[in-house]
Structure to design on (358 residues):
């Protein structure tokens, strides 16, 4: 199908959910509504495109102080384990993160892990390090990219790590989200944050998603299939048994590894709100880390409710932002996946007809 058969986004920057008046939950966001609202956390992307067949890349989540000598408390949760999350066993066993978290394409994950190890060994303080646990997640971008080409190389990884910065985070078809597809639309990277009171402390929770999963989009409890936005439902899409989502959560709340595992679990649960199918072939993972190790007693478990709510809302919003920021993409073998048209989404949300009638 020709790309012009799909509704195209208007010229100029794509708008995020809140720009459209779509507000998820009751909590306040951080200043950038991004993972980088958590102090000391930076994000970098390298986008790898070779038209028409390669649409891939790498995204780096870089905590300022992380290292094998200065690990951060962390937890991981697997919703469905059909995927590669390198470094999971040691992270689970020790409850610590000692490298940045990188996201990429499935068959490039192993090169990315090797490049991350090389980059870490050259960091100050790592001169005598002999053991290192890289954490790298992946999604299969093979619908739109020649995944067998394994296009992500060491230079791309180092560029994402060295270029990581605070402030606004690029979303949509960038970095590890360049070739990903979710819920029938072009997707990619999305992010969001929440500011909250937790146990008498003001804290921030930030999330970043690499969205690439099946199901039917839900927004504000309304089902929004592609056809309701004027998109041909017969266009190319991943089969129901494929797809993945990797979620990274950061917080400056004083939590231990066990509590961060509970946070990671809620992040995967949040995908259900967006309409995720959690199919056989989907790798649904979350890594959660804290940026304040050794800062006193952890927050009491009974007081974690607001943080759980913040993460649930943040993930839901981040997935929607990943869709709204993405643009229609034509890739491998001429396949085209349409972007979610913002104007038609808003029309679908105000349509008085019940979902089954559309």
């Amino acid at each position: 199908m020709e790309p012009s058969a799909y509704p195209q986004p208007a010229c100029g920057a794509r708008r995020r959910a809140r720009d459209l008046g779509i507000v998820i939950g009751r909590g306040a966001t951080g200043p950038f509504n991004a993972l980088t609202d958590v102090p000391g956390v930076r994000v970098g992307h390298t986008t790898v495109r070779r038209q028409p067949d390669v649409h891939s890349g790498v995204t780096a989540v870089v905590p300022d102080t992380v290292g094998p000598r200065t690990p951060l408390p962390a937890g991981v949760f697997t919703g469905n384990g059909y995927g590669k999350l390198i470094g999971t066993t040691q992270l689970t066993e020790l409850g610590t993160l000692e490298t940045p978290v990188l996201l990429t394409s499935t068959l490039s994950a192993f090169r990315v892990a090797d490049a991350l190890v090389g980059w870490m060994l050259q960091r100050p303080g790592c001169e005598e390090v002999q053991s290192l646990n890289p954490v790298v997640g992946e999604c299969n971008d093979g619908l739109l990219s020649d995944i067998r080409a394994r296009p992500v190389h060491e230079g791309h990884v180092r560029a994402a790590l060295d270029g990581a910065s605070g402030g606004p985070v690029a979303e949509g078809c960038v970095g590890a989200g360049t070739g990903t597809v979710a819920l029938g639309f072009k997707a990619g990277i999305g992010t969001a944050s929440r500011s909250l009171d937790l146990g008498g402390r003001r804290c921030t929770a930030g999330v970043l998603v690499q969205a690439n999963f099946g199901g039917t989009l839900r927004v504000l409890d309304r089902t929004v299939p592609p056809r309701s936005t004027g998109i041909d439902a017969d266009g190319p899409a991943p089969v129901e048994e494929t797809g993945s989502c990797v979620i990274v959560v950061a917080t400056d709340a004083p939590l231990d590894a066990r509590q961060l595992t509970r946070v990671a679990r809620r992040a995967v649960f949040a995908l259900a709100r967006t309409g995720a199918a959690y199919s056989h072939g989907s790798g649904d993972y979350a890594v959660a880390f804290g940026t304040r190790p050794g800062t006193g007693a952890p927050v009491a478990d009974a007081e974690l409710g607001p943080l759980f709510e913040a993460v649930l809302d943040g993930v839901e919003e981040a997935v929607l932002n990943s869709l709204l920021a993405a643009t229609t993409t034509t890739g491998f073998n001429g396949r085209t996946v349409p972007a979610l048209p913002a104007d038609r989404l808003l029309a679908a949300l105000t349509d008085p007809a019940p979902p089954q009638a559309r």
